[in-house]
Design brief:
The chain contains 19 helices and 10 strands. With 489 residues, it is of the alpha/beta class. It has 3 domains: 7-182, 3-Layer(aba) Sandwich (Rossmann fold); 191-439, N-(1-d-carboxylethyl)-l-norvaline Dehydrogenase, domain 2 (Orthogonal Bundle), CATH 1.10.1040; 443-488, 6-Phosphogluconate Dehydrogenase, domain 3 (Single alpha-helices involved in coiled-coils or other helix-helix interfaces, Up-down Bundle), CATH 1.20.5. Strands 3-2-1-4-5-6-7-10 form an 8-stranded mixed beta sheet, with helices on both faces. The chain has a two-stranded antiparallel ribbon with strand order 8-9. Strand 4 (71-74), helix 4 and strand 5 (98-101) form a beta-alpha-beta unit. The structure holds 6-phosphogluconic acid. Residues 104, 130-132, 194, 197, 265-267, 269-270, 371-372 line the site of 6-phosphogluconic acid. 6-phosphogluconic acid binds at residues 104, 130-132, 194, 197, 265-267, 269-270, 371-372. Homodimer. GO terms for molecular function: NADP binding; phosphogluconate dehydrogenase (decarboxylating) activity. Belongs to the 6-phosphogluconate dehydrogenase family. InterPro entries: 6-PGluconate_DH-like_C_sf (IPR008927), 6PGD_dom2 (IPR013328), 6PGDH_C (IPR006114), 6PGDH_Gnd/GntZ (IPR006113), 6PGDH_NADP-bd (IPR006115), 6PGdom_BS (IPR006184), NAD(P)-bd_dom_sf (IPR036291), Pgluconate_DH (IPR006183).
Length: 489
Amino acid sequence: MKSKSDIGLVGLAVMGENLILNMESKGFTVTAYNRSYSKVEKFIEGRAKGKNIRGADSVKTLVESLATPRKVMLMVKAGQAVDDFIEQLIPFLDQGDIIIDGGNTHFPDSNRRTEYLESKGLLYIGTGVSGGEEGALKGPSIMLGGSKKAWPLVKDIFQSISAKVADENGNEVVPCCDWVGDAGAGHFVKMVHNGIEYGDMQLICEAYQLMKVVLGLNADEIQKVFAHWNTTELDSYLIDITKDIFAFKDEDGEPLVEKILDTAGQKGTGKWTGVTALDLGVPLTLIADSVFARCISAKKEQRVAASKVISGPEIHFDGDKAEFIENLRQAVLAAKIVSYAQGYMLMQEAAKEFNWELNYGGIALMWRGGCIIRSAFLGKIKEAYDADPKLENLLLTPYFKDTVESSQAGWRKVVGTAVTNGIAIPCLSSALTYFDGFRTARLPANLLQAQRDYFGAHTYERTDKPRGEFFHTNWTGRGGDTSSTTYDV
Ligand code: 6PG
């Protein structure tokens, strides 16, 4: 073992342990530390035995074991625990040492911590790490942001342990790990990744509900549909695991999935994505609806009670099942394109707001392998941003425009069938509504502006006058000529 470790890692939960083992397998020596030392002992005697991994029994010994500039990665619960460890580390660190937070941290915290640690002469990295337990061990997707000076000092470690994908020619192996931008940019991109993850998962769930309730398919039949979808443009990790979930039987031979209570949990990253979109004025409808879908699922008792007193339509389907399933596949694909277009719009707006230079093609590449939303589809997004790095909306690029246009007939039939049968499909339908709004030159917001001006003198612009000139009308003859100030949040 080297006399000094290349990196220290704090937090021996599942992600932390696996990241350490991954780093060690790539030739790095790692010091492991955990608040309760018994976990360190257990790890050193267990999974880390015989490997280039040393345990530390205090923050001081952890820091003393590291080569300079020291690199300490925190894999602890996002929030106060990160601040607490930072405060414990600071007294032992020297100028230029690096603290790396690899948890699912809310990006404003990483903005704040970067500034704070840089003010103390230290460097800070806030990084998204995606891929769950297996990804952490075998190659996660890693999205780093923070103090740019730290990047060359950690690049080798993180690019070595990350997932790899082939380049566009199918040859060279490219790491799914890159520098995203200053301050909280890495955690911001991870947050959007998670929001997209929520949307993709909800779309799959809506497809399942339609297959089960409207078509009456059983778990084995649904398994086959997902297995087929995974050979099409929908080829992705989430469809792949869904196919496996439908094949999984409980001890009695029945599909386990049908025995799981229908109340979704959430740890907050999807909600942050939605709240940020509202803050930045980005119509991120699909992800927001996927968060609300989890919220309504969690109100199980209320739903059960309501189901007993409020009736809906009888389920009725006399169409061609195979044709409906193909329409459904196209609906999921089209809605997924809308979701990614919305997620990318959010990143573009945030880049303006926070002065980040985000590399959108590079982000698609980082998500191409290792992470939960990994899919073949992301290769197309990378191509779109490589062709036009300033692209405003993915829906305007030839591949995505053509795909959505050719899918929309099937998509509309699916939404229509769901609505007629009273099946809730918040994401499939809100994505279609967004799509129709986006491609409509004149929306009814003229009336909305008239209403605002009528009751509150909020003013409006006119189609027959230049943009930026505001008018107020005394609609009733009773109001005065004074208009309220014109501003938008
Ligand atoms: C990942 C996942 C990971 C985690 C989510 C789950 O990229 O590896 O996104 O971060 O699975 O935090 O989030 P919810 O508990 O909110 O579904």
